[in-house]
Amino acid sequence: MERGKTQQLPEISRRVEHAGRIFEEHEDFIRTIIRFHIKGRTEAEDIFQQSFLSLVARPIPENIIDVKGYLYQAITNDVIDTARQARKYEARIKRYASRNKYSTVEINPPDALAIQDEQAQKTLKFLEHNLHKHELMAVKLKYKEGYTSEETAEQMGIKRQSVNRYITSAVKKLRCFLNTPCYRHSEKE
Length: 189
What we know:
Layout (H helix, E strand, L loop, with lengths): L2 H35 L3 H17 L9 H33 L10 H21 L2 H12 L4 H8 L3 H18 L12
Helix pairs in contact: 1-2, 1-3, 2-3, 4-7, 5-6, 5-7, 6-7
């Protein structure tokens, strides 16, 4: 081995040991943060490992007093970075597929498509009858037309925060309709 690399080994070993102690001491806290952000078990484990490697690469500065606060921010950043990388990868795959004329859409049997269409129609009827006009418009623009929150806000002539509030309210109502955990309303908001 070269002399420079040999000298780096003790530093790397020290960083790995330090990260190991921190992860051992705060493992439950770290896993809780990751589970808050990531629902899939495999993805959560990947983030856990990525966070360990990040801590080895960038150890906690000695002047940090709130280690848990630092870990929370570092792990949240790892989650954001991982999601960003996944979106970029997916976009590259879609560009590659479109250039090479490959389909990225799963092929469903006709009966599955009919069932999906029927469910979509029922959901749309529910939305039309149970949402306020602003909620319905926000949902249609964002999910049916594919607009971003900013574009939806611009189309509706309102603030982005209002769009997000309408979408959140509509999703809660839809969850109730689909029998998933929700709050119950006796009337429209």
